[in-house]
Design goal:
Four copies of one chain form a homotetramer.
Chain A (H helix, E strand, L loop, with lengths): L2 E2 L4 E6 L5 E7 L9 H11 L16 E3 L3 E2 L2 E2 L4 E6 L21 H8 L16 H16 L5 E9 L6 H10 L6 E8 L13 H10 L4 E6 L10 H4 L3 E4 L2 E4 L7 E2 L2 E2 L4 E7 L9 E4 L5 E4 L10 H23 L5
Antiparallel strand pairs in A: 1-2, 2-3, 3-7, 4-7, 5-6, 8-9, 9-15, 10-15, 11-12, 13-14, 16-17
Helix pairs in contact in A: 1-3, 1-7, 3-7, 5-7
Chain lengths: ~325, ~325, ~325, ~325
């Protein structure tokens, strides 16, 4: 279950401290000009060390395409790629080998599989998301070159409960060896009417699945979201009207989707992220035999996932849209 | 894209005013005793007319199994079933044939497919969810007979912004011809450690996809959810400890899932539902040519989806869990 | 695993002696005019009792569409359908309840699932293929209305080793209570260049899977097939040439497919079918406890599957092509 | 459509003259000891240059595992791997850039995708099959370590119509710059009763799909195959009997599968391969504009695919079986 999408599909692999992360993008149509600089620039947005908000780990995160591209264009065959892991300090993790870090996947992986790759969290590390950014960048290129003027823009809108002083709150948490949660808001303009499938393939269901598959995500809402649960229908229905010969809606409380299908208005949603589970302070826990112990994590860690999660949110949204676009090519005779 | 699940899979079909709704449950193991009374009782929970909170439409919602069962037990072959539509008043919809009801799927379906079955909302009607309840009931039977003591319990916890006087708020909205939104909370106890897949098949991602595929759902959060976005790691990490020889956590802010995999604690989540889009008051809108008009819907409609959405939320959760259980049978040598 | 296809997908259900057979066609584009007479005429070709070559069982095989069609056209939503079982004599099977008929699926089903629906072979009966004919007819309608002049024609070309006197050979076997095998050849003209996927979705691989999923099929070959294994490259390569401004091949030993993708020439293939396993003479066998016994089957059975398998072969081919067509809509930017 | 399998799944990528071939094996259970020497030895069987029967091209075909393995065992997470392309002579293909080699995929790829990677056949090259051998070797390790004593053995049984002097026939063809077809027979012992799914996932359908996805394969038959089409039921039914307390069959004309499900007897099948399309003699053809020209291929090519196809047939069979095994874990309560 390491594949996402129906037509435009990403299959990914790799662990935090393995040789590489990698992926295969299958179903990308032939003829897309691969702007490698753009792909790399997207990856760079996720890379640590971009600002003092993020971990000081150095990860080059250089994508290397291995297949599916010829003379600069996609050939219609699968696009394999890797990102080398170059700066791992696996020994940083020797002390967590036999213990379970609180609110990490150490315990569940060990129980499910019988053992785990404990180095840097193995497959459960958010480092895996770099592959999604590569696929997301390819999805953006596809949508653009297919002639759509779609703009996917995510940003941090809340950290630690505040929508102001976001950077300071993160820096303060970092100083204390603590971590902090927050909210990323994503707005997508330019999606034409008709993308998404009516029942289980609703556009919002695919977006929700995409977002909740990102490490540390705890919630998803679109349009007016949870706030809409407090309202009366007479307050929030989006009234249709004609403007410049096109049918549109006066308001957009629906968030650009009705009945699972895009309606031409902006799609917007919010994703809640918990604080990073890795604290630099000592925490009590148990070892694999259930004996009480303490864990003090070494290494270089983010105090907040948000700065680096912004391009991941955009990328997963782009993958969902590229897939919905291609699937919608088959909706009419 | 009318199939949900990987191993335990529901494929469903049918429109609000067609002959039947129906579905095929594929991948249900052989040997499950089919308690038809239980399945029907689950369906009855969703049926309208159970209380004065819901529409007075009469829908018998009698399930008829067509295959996959022999001598009272599942045979391992696909379980087909239908629910007859018996009380449609299609003429109630003649007046919306050529106009787009606000915040409904009328516009998006027409644009996507070129035309639409306008009677009772066609495939976009929430009536489709009856099939999910049948599959959910089968999933519950499977989990129980497989020896798990899993309890899935959903309930309305908020309507119109209030967690009290829920019934009164709904009745008041109904009197006014208005509708109201709310929140359903679901708690699941008894899930063993190890269900769910690490990356794109995270248990929370599948639950989110399941919930957002329900009509009128606008948001999903699990564990501490959006509230967790306001917190610091030091406040919310779930500390492991041993209790009675078993590894457990002091708190359960994670909501029973870590790294996409169940950790043995209760899984809990909340789903936000918008107010029903169908008002009994007159609303402005446009017709298919974009000309301004008004819509006044006839027929019998719920003032709030929540009372009837409770069993749907439980059912979709049960399907996700049954699928995760079967998939987890292949996780180790 | 009762679903076939990627975009145009058939999910089917039902047993020989259950209430109905049925299926769900998902992914059929909106706007296809549903010529129900044509669908029924295709079903009639498979129905027993069409000639003295086939069983005298009466099966009305009347298809009833349940969803996905409005005002005579497909709506883009799933097309559910059923075919009622009306002429079962389940008591004919009481004597095989606890024994294993030679070369039937009785033994394997019982071992796999723990028990089996023994009436008429249950799910293993070829009666299941009626659903494929419905989906095949819909696939043919889709391809035609999409503007392709594709002609799919299957016929019996060999029975009992002879390509002549086919009817007599079948009748002679029938008289003796014996059964006989044979070969169906299928020719498909009018498929445009470009359908099929390069590696695992090769057109011939999908056709092979489709044909070998038909009861009693033992082999598949396309183009020159097994005969080609005897040849030298210099004898069988298909030389390209231009004719009337179009690139074509002098010969068509390849069978219309190169590298898994249609090349515009006729696609042709042959399917080998074994003799029906049900003999009307007494055969030794064992019961479920392994004790020796004899089986003498009652009931009405075909002496040869071929006459009724012809429309099934065509139908499965049509489904494969419809799916390849829709998938190919996404192959280029 | 570069993914094969349901639970045990191979997704592969790469072109003949790209940087690497590669793949991702998803769904392999945790705990399988990865005997890399065995995997490499399987790859070596496919590698050219093993005997004077095959091309003199040097391809190291060294597999490098990238993920999913820790401390020598599979972790349950996806197993990425690459095989470097080290000995390409891309310039050998400059002269075929704008022309279509007879019976190759040049024409169909160009028509489908608008252009093609012409170097060494690109994605249509049989070099792609190296990845299948890696996945097949992993499947064999899984089956063995799961406690099954399954033996998958393929061999060349016919070349150029002869079952004798196979090596000489190939060498003679090679001397002439010609190529020759043949048949590979595969026998599988030790498969327990119950693997395979009844309708579309029949074991023989999956094997047929697997085999026909191999380059140059033109036909598949299992059990008595096409010969069975000449027979009467009274001649070929497999009579059940008890032997040493186990239910078995006197004969095995069915080829170890009944109703799509393994019956415990040996599974055997034959695959027909056409002669390699690449001749070292001059052939007429057309260029991309339809103008007549001639093609004389340079480079090092096999005169017969069979010697190197033997491990590919075994590998694809192993993948089908591993997948059927894992899926069968979910067949009963």
């Amino acid at each position: 279950m390491n594949t996402f999408g129906n037509i435009f599909r990403l299959t990914c692999f790799g662990e935090s401290h393995g040789i590489v992360l990698g992926g295969v993008i299958d179903g990308c149509p032939a003829g897309v000009l691969v702007d490698e600089d753009f792909v790399q620039s997207e990856l760079d947005r996720r890379r640590p060390g971009q600002s003092n908000l993020t971990t000081s780990r150095k990860e080059a995160d250089q994508v290397e395409f291995l297949s599916g591209i010829f003379e600069g264009k996609t050939t219609g065959t699968p696009i394999g790629f890797v990102i080398y892991n170059t700066n791992q300090h696996s020994s940083d993790y020797d002390n967590v080998k036999d213990i379970f870090r609180p609110s990490h996947a150490d315990f569940t992986y060990t129980q499910k599989y019988g053992f785990r790759d404990y180095r840097g969290g193995g497959r459960s590390s958010a480092r895996e998301t770099a592959c999604r950014v590569v696929a997301g960048a390819m999805a953006k290129l596809l949508l653009k070159q297919a002639g759509f003027n779609i703009n996917i823009h995510a940003e941090m809108t809340e950290v630690g409960g505040s929508s102001e002083n976001i950077e300071e709150i993160i820096l303060k948490a970092k100083e204390k060896g603590d971590t902090v949660g927050g909210i990323i808001t994503c707005n997508i303009s330019g999606v034409p009417v008709g993308w998404g499938e009516p029942v289980f393939g609703k556009l919002q269901a695919n977006l929700a699945s995409a977002m909740l598959s990102i490490n540390a995500a705890k919630g998803f809402e679109y349009g007016m979201g949870f706030e809409m649960a407090k309202k009366f229908g007479s307050q929030v229905n989006d009234i249709f009207e004609s403007r410049d010969g096109e049918i549109t809606t006066r308001t957009n409380n629906s968030g650009g989707i009705q009945g699972g299908i895009s309606n031409g208005q902006d799609i917007y949603f919010r994703v809640a992220f918990k604080p990073v589970a890795t604290l630099l302070t000592e925490q009590p826990t148990v070892d694999k035999d259930g004996n009480p112990t303490v864990v003090k994590v070494r290494g270089r860690h983010d105090a907040c996932v948000l700065p680096r999660a912004v391009p991941i949110v955009e990328s997963m949204a782009a993958i969902v849209l590229a897939d919905a676009y291609l699937l919608n090519r088959t909706s009419r005779l």
